[in-house]
Design a protein that fits this description.
It catalyses: 5-carboxymethoxyuridine(34) in tRNA + S-adenosyl-L-methionine = 5-methoxycarbonylmethoxyuridine(34) in tRNA + S-adenosyl-L-homocysteine. Residues 51-148 form the Methyltransferase type domain. Belongs to the class I-like SAM-binding methyltransferase superfamily. CmoM family. GO terms for molecular function: methyltransferase activity. Catalyzes the methylation of 5-carboxymethoxyuridine (cmo5U) to form 5-methoxycarbonylmethoxyuridine (mcmo5U) at position 34 in tRNAs. This protein is an alpha/beta fold. It has helices spanning 11-19, 22-41, 59-65, 78-90, 130-139, 154-163, 167-171, 190-199, 227-237, and strands at 49-53, 70-75, 97-101, 115-121, 141-152, 203-210, 249-255, 275-276. Strands 6-7-5-4-1-2-3-8 form an eight-stranded mixed sheet, with helices on both faces. Helix 2 (22-41) packs parallel to helix 9. The chain is globular, with a radius of gyration of 18 Å. The two termini are 28 Å apart.
Length: 278
């Protein structure tokens, strides 16, 4: 049975392997392009309240904070929060952050107002019930606000196993291989995520494939290319089919109608303290 993954034991390795690699650079670049579109849409509300749910060290939310917005970042891992605090402090952004030691499912208990923008990136695939977690965060999105969701793509995992010849593994249902500790516990079908968003009344504004071909390139390939060319081509193809739907991750963002009620106001105060271990 899948349990919600806590990265206390792998926080340092996770941060290094996810953010300090070519994979991480491609991911940051293409998703940031989408976030710029979202911020332009919401620019009438300044400064924005950003909820970085399961935010790790907050790489992308720090870029948003640099623009003057305020961020609530929560994570289930206390060790990951310590890393986040160090990174945020090093970048001189701590005053704009509130760090909350909480699961994404329970973050509503720590908020006194809904978020203008919710970031929910690379978390669902580590949860026992990704649909429930997403629904909780949809409730914490203000009317007219936007949720930004990135998830480990079932189509990408299937395609990777197909081209590697792992047909028996596919026939077994592609169970999680525990020896690969940083491989997500499960892959999420895009059509499920899209329907969860639209069933809740949200309007999907955009979709982007994250690493549409980079991860399928053979390490022994003797091609004529540079990383800069790979990054440029990823940006060119990431919003086109069929490449979009083959991304190892998919980023989808959706807007909440202005007439939907958000039950996030629980009467507590969102003070200026930077750390909440509640």
């Amino acid at each position: 049975m899948i349990k919600d993954r806590n990265f206390d034991d792998l926080a340092q390795k996770f941060a290094k392997n996810i953010y300090g690699t070519a994979k991480g650079q491609i991911r940051q670049t293409v998703v940031w392009q989408d976030l710029e579109q979202i911020l332009a849409l919401l620019e009438s509300q300044t400064p924005l309240h950003i909820l970085d749910a399961g935010g790790g060290i907050g790489q992308l939310s720090q870029k948003i904070a640099e623009l003057g917005h305020r961020v609530t970042l929560c994570d289930l891992s206390g060790e990951m929060l310590k890393l986040a605090e160090q990174e945020i402090a090093n970048n001189g952004l701590l005053e704009q952050y509130r760090l909350v030691h909480s699961s994404v499912q329970e973050i509503g208990e720590h908020l006194n107002e809904p978020a203008d923008l919710v970031l929910f990136h690379a978390v669902m695939e580590w949860l026992s019930d990704p649909k429930e977690a997403l629904e909780r965060l949809l409730e914490q999105t203000r009317p007219g606000g936007v949720i930004s969701v990135m998830f480990y793509n079932y189509n990408g995992l299937l395609f990777k196993n197909l081209i590697c010849g792992n047909l028996t593994h596919i026939e077994e249902g592609m169970p999680h291989r525990k020896r690969f500790k940083l491989q997500p516990q499960q892959a999420i079908k895009p059509e499920d995520v899209y329907s969860w968003l639209t069933d809740a009344g949200f309007t999907i504004l955009g979709k982007t494939g994250v690493r549409t071909f980079h991860d399928y390139m053979q390490t022994t390939m003797v091609g004529d290319y540079s990383f800069e060319q790979v990054l440029e081509m990823e940006q060119k193809l990431c919003r086109q089919e069929p490449y979009l739907s083959l991304g190892r991750y998919i980023h989808v963002y959706a807007q909440k109608p202005s007439d939907l009620v958000t039950p996030a106001d629980n009467g507590t105060s969102n003070d200026n303290s930077n750390k909440d271990n509640g």
